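Entry:
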Amino acid sequence: MGNREPCLKRGVKVKLTRSYVARVKHLCGGAKLARLLGGMRPRGLKFTQAVGGQRLLSRAMAGGGKFFHAVGPARACVIVLLLAVTILSGCVDRIQKTEKLRDIPFEVLAKEDVPQEFSNIIEQKKDLPFRLTYTDAGFLYIAEGYGAQLKTGYSVSVTELYETEEAVYLHTNLLGPPKGERTEEITTFPYVVIKLEAIDKTVVFD
C-alpha cells in the first residue's frame, strides 16, 4: 500500500496529532498516507467540531495496534480512509448549507410603522433582550432588542441580512451614544424592526 496514493482530498483540512500520524505510518507502511492524514487533529481521542461530534474514526484509531493487527494493516488503512471520507463529506455538506446565497433587501421601520399586534408583543418583551419574528400580509417582520439601557443615545444597527439554503441570517449591533453627544440618565430600550418579503425559512439571529 506504500506505493499507492490514498484518495483523500487535500482541500479539506482536519488535523491529527503527531502520534496518530506516526502510528498510521508505522502500521500502514505508507509515508504518503501519513502526510495526507497530517492535517487532522483530534481533541484527546475525540474529533473537534470540524468533524461534528462523530467519533467512529477516533475510536478505530484509539484501538491502535489491536485494531490494525486484528483486521490486517492493509484492510485497516482502507477502513480508516473510508471513515475519514464519510465524515469529511458530512462536514462539506453542512458548510454548503450555511453558505450565503444572497443578501436580502429590507426596510428598517419606525415604531409607528410596525404592525400593532407585533408592536404590542415588543412592548411586553422590551425590558430584556429579545428576538422576535412576525408574518403578516406577505411580509416578514424581524425584531431584535437589547434590553434596558441606563441612559439615552443607544441605537441598534443591522449589519447583515442574508439567505442560505436553509435559513435567513440576521446580524445586528448595539451602538452606544455617539462621541460628544449629550446623554441623560433615563432608561431606554433600544431595538430594531425590519420588514422584508416573507420567506418560509427559519430566522437565525447570528
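Helices lie at 18-28, 31-36, 56-62, 64-71, 73-97, 116-125.
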